[in-house]
């Protein structure tokens, strides 16, 4: 069975500072990895995904993430955050299989940007 | 304008009542999913469907039922057997070749 651990439940950051949201996963098979963002009372929006190829993945809104297979991590980074980045961020994993794509989510990290 | 729609945005359930949440997509995706979101617990899979007229239980299917009569629609019924239904419910869809799920805006279910 797969599992995802987001190491920080809350991350406060000042505006224009860099941020890293940490995600570790556990799986016995190869995986796809995803980061989603959720604004209050809204659905999830895909930020970026790793399916194969380059381990450094760039997404929307200036975010990027790096897949590290040896450390089973997929940390999300942004070099300079804005007030509008205040939201909850979810890391998710699915196995590389031919069947249904079942996502397993972490518990989320609430990112708060302070002026 | 392609996307996933969920209705209603808010839904109130009385004790002993069944309620149905709607999910529609015009993305031509084969697969559709229902997740439940509780504070501090991330999202958990309730049911999923890979093709019309077929669906499978997820991790927390007890007290829920679904149908998939059309490719575009995947309604979720919260039955009276679900003793703790208060949550935010999210529907998603995906195409096998995309290997990615896209989410609707969600329905918040509250118990009166």
Could you characterize the architecture of this molecule?
By secondary structure, chain A is mainly beta. Chain A has no helices and twelve strands. The model of chain A has no long low-confidence stretch (mean pLDDT 94). Chain B has strands at residues 4-7, 10-13, 19-25, 31-37, 43-51, 54-57, 64-66, 76-78, 87-95, 100-103, 107-111. Chain B starts with a strand and ends with a strand. Chain B is built from no helices and eleven strands. In chain B, strands 2, 4, 5, 6, 9, 10 and 11 form a seven-stranded mixed beta sheet that branches. A four-stranded antiparallel beta sheet of chain B has the order 1-3-8-7, with no helix packed on it. The A-B interface holds A 4, 9, 32, 34, 36, 41-46, 49, 51, 90, 92, 94, 99-103, 105-108 and B 4, 6, 31, 33, 40-45, 48, 50, 56, 58, 90, 92, 94, 96, 99-106, 108.
Oligomeric state of the chains in view: heterodimer
Task: Provide the succession of SSEs of chain B.
Answer: EEEEEEEEEEE
Most extensive protein-chain contact, per-chain counts? A-B, 25 and 27 residues
Discrete helix count of chain A: 0
Shape of chain B: globular
Q: What's the overall average pLDDT of chain A, rounded? A: 94
Query: Structural class, from helix and strand content of chain B?
Result: mainly beta
The strand count of chain B comes to 11
Keywords:
heterodimer; A: 115 residues; mainly beta; 6-stranded mixed sheet; 4-stranded antiparallel sheet; 12 strands; globular; B: 112 residues; 7-stranded mixed sheet; 53% strand
